[in-house]
Amino acid sequence: MIVSLANPKVKRVRMLQSRRRARYREHRFVIEGVRLAEEVVRAGLVPDFVLYVASLAEEARGAAVLEALEGLGAPCHLVDDAVMRACTDTETPPGLVAVLPFVRLPAPDHPTFTLVVDGVRTPGNLGAILRTAAAAGVDWVLLAPGTVDLYNPKTVRGGAGAHFRIPTRAMGWREVRRHLEGQDVWLAAARGDVPYTVVNWRKPIALIVGGEARGVSQEAQELAHGRVVIPMERGVESLNAAVATGILLFEVVRQRRSASA
Length: 261
Prior knowledge:
With 261 residues, the protein is an alpha/beta fold. It has helices at 8-18, 20-26, 34-43, 54-57, 60-72, 81-87, 123-136, 153-159, 173-179, 218-223, 241-260; strands spanning 28-32, 49-52, 76-78, 96-101, 113-118, 140-143, 168-170, 184-188, 194-195, 205-210, 226-229.
């Protein structure tokens, strides 16, 4: 059992949790909890190593995921509760953490449903957006400059497994523009021109959403063919970025399903 915070594996987890530079130097990040561990197993990914507490191994679900991780070849190490508390980014320790290589799912050959995230700086919002995009069947997500780290611990938790389900790329605007060729590009805006229910979302489309504080960038405005709005009551300035994204993405889903019915 690992009981010391000076243990190299414990120090590595804590460093990856707290330092973006360390994550990108090693191309590694940390997942926490049984639910994300199950997503790792489903994806067939092999962690560098796993740390867990005894109480998790005594539960049926915890024992099953540990067995599956070991079956994939991941070294699993028992730690005490104090070590787990030091390794987690949450107030309530999840009982399991694992170090994984960055995920790079294959980009779609001919995407018809692209989401561009422009300058969303809150990790929890980005995580929720990714989770919603995965649920809505978005082909892939492009992270424009100024967007928070994809592997920030809060982003990873908020994504609830989306990192393992939907291709995501961080890139500059020139590359974004190249990938959006042939698609109608709509910009979500608090003061848009077109109600979101009027847009024909059945065609190959890209939707750009921005952060709440600064809105969308000049590059996004120049790239968009039109600005789409979610009608709201007077006096309400804007919606949470993740909430607005969810409304828009599932209008795309609604239209496409009704067209194929």
